[in-house]
């Protein structure tokens, strides 16, 4: 919707007040028409259904009034007027049990402070700012009300203020340790703050009180997944599916279980669960895309027909349409219909890009500021800082560069443990420099220059301590495969001067095309949904990596993906030598290594190395002229 169009959309409250005014004037048909218009614009707005109930009561249409009021309390259970009307209508219809239940709900609300009821109601309708203002004013007068504090924390969670929410929930649990709803909220906040071990511990406390609580079990599973501990959730999701009637929850649980099976290399079982998710919900875009994202899976003609039918539905949710576009693109690619495939990828990218807020200038400005701040002189003045522990191996670069292959090769060595794409380094950079709200890049790289030697040493020790939970095999070395860490090489070197850093670099046309055909599950990859965006990002990456090479000569080993594919033995020996590791034949048979792999390349690295990735993009060359032009001299100069 354009800015001009948005400006012409009537305010939600204004339309509601118009309907109320018409009702007061006994102009009921006009009021109902206004409410229908309001519903078309804001179908989840509870108070419009309450107002519709008022109108329908006046017309004597009790069944329709009941339907409207029940919708209102389903969306927002803190509407006293709705429960009052429901009690009266049920009594009038001789429905005593339902009348008594409505009366009980009304009595509960009447026992609560009116400020809490009002704030709850506003929160349910998404009016976060006024709800927060009411609660803060109330807590100034009654700071001991744990229910009010928990509600305020939930409002902050909705506003993505997870730090503020965590502080409030810690206060609540200190006062009321048996407040289980608050503890569940705290577990959710801890996950959002990327503290999965603490989140799992909170879930374990809840399960000790109520072992079969489905919400607690789901939260425990989510924490396990965040920790990279996928094996136990496979059986846990199967347990949650037992006896569950068909419906949306079945589709979601099948999806989650399939994802865990895929990560653990159990592809046939994963496919069966993805299929079960589609049986429960045929237009489930994520399930279709997840099948495509196996990379080695091929859709049947019937699948393609079903995909087309689902994608053509006019009432499809926006993200389902995006998922289906990418899935259909992969299906047609496998069929050899590259024109049709590209049209699908292009459509999916356009939809995804329109829903995002990527700004290439932010990344370019961040790189320029890092180059100004972190110089040879910067490092010379800080020689000997950090923790000289050689255990971490950082594999970084751009997404779809071949980094999962390199991780799998190194994790096949008996001294190296593969973990996952760890978020700690990016989180530390955000704490120090601030984070851009859209892309998460450092806002003030200059803050790195204000760190003291003691602070840097603390950060190094903190990284080693916080990543210990991912190191289950007890091997001397471990891998952090977060691609975006190329932004933070300066910080990594300060913190961990003995860590190994590998930059996996892929030929730009192949790398950028591979990104354009990949739908990512994180907003940090918003630069991948447009030709101009991915080309500018690739050039920015090259520019920053040249800077790191200049200020830290020899610190980063460049690993060209193509060289590893062309001569695996030489490539493996070169990397192991740089890591200070002896050669082991298992690194050449990496595809036989059994371990969890979370990235889109999970199935590809379980097969012997192939040359497909080197030339795949050439089948789309007729449509990639603008990409070549946008990359400019990077097409030939990417190795320097």
Describe this structure in words.
- By secondary structure, the chain is mainly alpha-helical.
- It has helices spanning 3-8, 12-24, 28-41, 46-59, 62-75, 80-92, 96-111, 114-124, 128-141, 146-158, 162-175, 180-192, 196-209, 214-226, 231-241, 248-263, 267-280, 285-292, 301-311, 318-335, 338-354, 360-373, 376-380, 403-411, 424-433, 453-466, 489-495, 508-516, 531-551, 561-566, 568-579, 612-615, 625-631, 634-637; strands at 392-397, 416-420, 477-480, 500-505, 556-560.
- A five-stranded parallel β-sheet has the order 2-3-1-4-5, sandwiched between helices.
- It is globular, with a radius of gyration of 28 Å.
- The protein starts with a helix and ends with a helix.
- The model is unreliable at 1-9 (pLDDT under 50).
Task: Describe the structure concisely.
This protein has 640 residues and is mainly α. It contains 34 helices and 5 strands. 62% of the residues lie in helices and 4% in strands.
């Amino acid at each position: 919707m354009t800015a001009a169009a948005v400006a012409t959309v009537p305010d939600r409250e204004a339309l509601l007040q118009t309907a109320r005014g018409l009702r007061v004037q006994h102009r009921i048909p006009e009021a109902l028409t206004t409410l229908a218009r309001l519903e078309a614009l804001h179908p989840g707005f509870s108070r419009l259904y309450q107002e519709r109930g008022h109108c329908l009561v006046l017309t004597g249409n009790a069944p329709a009034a009941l339907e409207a009021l029940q919708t209102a309390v389903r969306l927002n259970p803190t509407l006293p007027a709705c429960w009052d009307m429901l009690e009266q209508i049920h009594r009038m219809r001789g429905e005593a049990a339902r009348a008594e239940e409505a009366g009980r709900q009304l009595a509960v609300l009447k026992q609560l402070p009116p400020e809490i009821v009002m704030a709850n109601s506003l929160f349910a309708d998404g009016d976060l700012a006024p709800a927060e203002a009411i609660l803060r004013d109330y807590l100034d007068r009654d700071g001991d009300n744990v229910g009010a504090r928990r509600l305020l924390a939930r409002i902050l969670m909705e506003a993505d203020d997870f730090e503020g929410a965590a502080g409030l929930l810690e206060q609540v649990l200190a006062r009321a340790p048996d407040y289980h709803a608050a503890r569940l909220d705290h577990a959710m906040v801890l996950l959002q703050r990327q503290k999965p071990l603490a989140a799992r511990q909170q879930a374990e406390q809840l399960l000790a009180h109520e072992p079969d609580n489905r919400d607690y079990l789901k939260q425990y599973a989510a924490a396990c997944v965040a920790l990279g501990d996928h094996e136990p959730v496979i059986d846990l999701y199967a347990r949650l599916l037992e006896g569950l009637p068909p419906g949306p929850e079945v589709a979601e649980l099948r999806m989650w279980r399939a994802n865990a099976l895929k990560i653990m290399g159990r592809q046939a079982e994963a496919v069966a669960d993805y299929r079960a998710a589609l049986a429960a919900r045929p237009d489930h875009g994520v399930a279709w895309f997840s099948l495509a994202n196996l990379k080695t899976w091929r859709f049947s003609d019937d699948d393609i027909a079903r995909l087309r039918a689902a994608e053509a539905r006019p009432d499809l949710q926006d993200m389902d349409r995006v998922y289906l576009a990418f899935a259909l693109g992969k299906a047609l690619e496998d069929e050899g219909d590259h024109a049709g495939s590209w049209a699908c990828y292009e459509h999916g990218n356009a939809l995804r890009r329109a829903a995002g807020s990527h700004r290439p200038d932010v990344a370019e400005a961040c790189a320029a500021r890092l180059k100004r701040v972190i110089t040879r002189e910067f490092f010379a003045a800080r020689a000997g800082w950090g923790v000289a522990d050689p255990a971490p191996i950082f594999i970084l670069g751009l997404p779809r560069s071949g980094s999962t292959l390199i991780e799998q090769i190194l994790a096949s060595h008996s001294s190296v443990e593969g973990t996952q794409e760890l978020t700690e380094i990016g989180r530390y950079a955000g704490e120090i420099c601030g984070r851009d709200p859209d892309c998460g890049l450092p806002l003030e790289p200059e803050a790195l220059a204000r760190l003291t030697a003691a602070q840097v040493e603390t950060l190094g020790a903190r990284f080693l301590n916080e990543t210990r939970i991912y190191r289950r095999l007890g091997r001397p070395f471990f891998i952090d495969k977060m691609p975006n860490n190329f932004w933070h090489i300066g910080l990594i070197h300060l913190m961990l001067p003995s860590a190994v850093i590998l930059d996996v670099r892929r030929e730009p046309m192949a790398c950028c095309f591979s990104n354009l055909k990949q739908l990512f599950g994180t907003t940090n990859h918003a630069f991948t949904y447009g030709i101009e965006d991915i080309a500018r990002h690739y050039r920015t990456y090259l520019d920053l990596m040249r800077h790191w090479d200049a200020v830290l000569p020899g610190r980063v080993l460049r690993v060209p993906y193509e060289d590893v594919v062309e001569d695996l033995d030489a490539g493996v020996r070169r990397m192991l030598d740089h890591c200070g590791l002896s050669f082991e034949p298992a690194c050449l048979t990496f595809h036989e290594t059994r371990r969890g792999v979370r990235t889109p390349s999970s199935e590809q690295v379980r097969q012997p190395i192939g040359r497909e990735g080197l030339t795949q993009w050439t089948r789309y060359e007729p449509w990639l002229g603008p990409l070549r032009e946008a990359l400019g001299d990077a097409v030939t100069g990417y190795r320097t």
